[in-house]
Design goal:
heterodimer; A: 194 residues; B: 272 residues; Rossmann fold; 19% strand
Chain lengths: 194, 272
């Protein structure tokens, strides 16, 4: 059920994955999003496995969205940016609640972008948008392809612009996403999904 | 959206496991269970979840292989050192007031957490009056836990955890190194009973003073979480302690009103 790239489709959620260079890239994406944005954003940003991070606090100052670290069994709400907690995979259940796991790292990463994207593809099918940004490993490429195969919208940051292009290029080697765009254009696209 | 064929196969698989082997994964969180089943397919040599179901019905050995994927043997000694530090500083002073102690480590996996507790109790002079029950559903994990042998590669991380957890001796006092393994001091095991127990289907150990069940509930759905927390409440003595994983809580559960936070950041609760 792959749709042509520019076919209108109904999107219920946005899943974003990034690693090295991701904080700045994410800032660009979310700074233009306002409170009341219809969609939830689920984000895996690779972080060191131990110790608390202040990702939610940092990003709350950058966006009108509600920002929080994901809790397990939490219902997913629009207008909210959920970060995967350090040391846990973040997954989406069939009933559209969040769950966490401490299963083995994937691509040396926990949280892993593949784990989030694959479960998001299972839960939302064609109604999820997957966005893969700058990063220094291949996590996320297989997951984004899973979203593509489920008919979802796939967006890869233009490798020419990415601070580290390994992650975007790994995706482009696997399949052709709907969009390969610089950050500013991705930000516009996300706003248009509203 | 219609339920996909693989989701149906997964439901049938867990039903088959329950009826054939009495292991109950029916109320586990689906997304991570699915990942683990799919990971097992190649290892067990099945093309689909449906084929896996057929296979395990006929072949208990294949089921035992699958069980190694369905349970999550991700653990370490003194994992989350702050948790052990909080036990030492805030829970141990209360435990000290009891003439004898019963402690239940639910979902003990390969034993790292129960040995960590045994070391902590030893250093606080409480091990001799304690009985520790360490339970899991996976017989292979329990067997490894009983052996108390760990990979040398982990020792550095465990030593660091031990120090951060407020260990009062040297971690090296507790093991003997042999080639690429370390054998934990046998005396740590003397007060530990390892047992097969399922939070999904079995009942309780009575009159426990402390239950430690970490990163087990995250794999359960709400209903099974409520069952497990109900078991813990029933098992604990009056004002007993419950320690959970760093992202787990009794708040928002059916048992929320029956516990109070004790060391909230470390997810240690106390029975009301």
């Amino acid at each position: 059920m792959n749709l042509p790239a520019n076919a209108p489709r109904h999107i219920d959620a946005i899943a974003i994955g990034t690693s090295a260079g991701g904080l700045e890239a994410l800032s660009v994406l979310v700074s233009g999003l306002e409170a009341g944005f219809r969609l939830p954003l689920l984000v895996v940003q690779h972080v060191p496995p131990s110790g608390p991070t202040q990702l939610a606090e940092i990003f709350q100052r950058k966006t009108g969205l509600r920002v929080k670290e994901a809790d397990e069994k939490e219902p997913i709400e629009g207008g909210t940016l959920y970060f995967a907690p350090p040391g846990y995979h973040l997954l989406v259940e069939q009933d559209r609640t969040l769950s966490l796991s401490q299963d083995e790292p994937v691509h040396f990463s926990r949280p892993s972008i593949d784990v989030l994207f694959e479960s998001a593809a299972d839960a939302w099918g064609s109604a999820v948008a997957g966005v893969l940004l700058t990063g220094a490993n291949e996590d996320g490429a297989a997951g984004l392809e899973a979203i593509h195969l489920a008919g979802g919208l796939t967006v890869v940051q233009d490798p020419a612009e990415a601070e580290i292009d390994t992650m975007p290029r790994a995706a482009l080697q696997r399949f052709t996403p709907d969009h390969v765009l610089p950050l500013r254009r991705i930000a516009q696209l996300l706003r248009s999904l509203e | 959206m219609a339920v996909s064929p693989v989701e149906v196969e997964l439901k049938l698989l867990v039903e088959a496991i329950y009826h054939r082997y009495s292991y109950d994964f029916r109320d586990y969180s689906g997304a991570s269970l699915k990942r683990r089943v799919l990971l097992s397919l190649r290892h067990i040599g099945c093309e689909s979840v449906g084929a896996l179901q057929r296979r395990i019905l006929d072949d208990p050995q294949a089921f035992m292989e699958l069980l190694q994927y369905l349970t999550i043997p991700v653990t370490e000694m003194f994992r989350d050192p702050g948790y052990y530090r909080a036990l030492r500083e805030h829970v141990v002073p209360v435990l000290r007031t009891y003439p004898s102690l019963k402690i239940w480590v639910a979902g003990c996996s390969t034993g790292e957490e129960v040995y960590s507790l045994a070391i902590l109790l030893h250093e606080e002079g409480l091990l001799e009056r304690s009985m520790l029950y360490a339970t899991d559903i996976n017989p292979r994990s329990l067997e490894r836990a009983r052996e108390g042998i760990f990979d040398m590669r982990h020792v550095r991380a465990y030593t660091l955890n031990y120090q951060q957890a407020g260990g009062t001796a040297s971690f090296a006092d507790y093991y003997t190194a042999a080639y690429d393994s370390v054998l934990l001091d046998r005396s740590l095991r003397s007060r530990v009973t390892f047992a097969d127990h399922s939070l999904a289907t079995d009942s309780v150990f009575s009159e426990t003073h402390l239950i430690s069940c970490r990163n087990v509930l995250i794999y359960f759905n709400k209903g099974l979480q409520n069952r497990a927390l109900g078991l813990f409440h029933e098992s604990l003595c009056r004002r007993g302690f419950l320690g959970l994983g760093s992202k787990e809580t009794v708040e928002f559960s059916a048992s929320a009103e029956r516990f109070e936070p004790f060391v909230k950041p470390e997810r240690i609760f106390r029975k009301l």
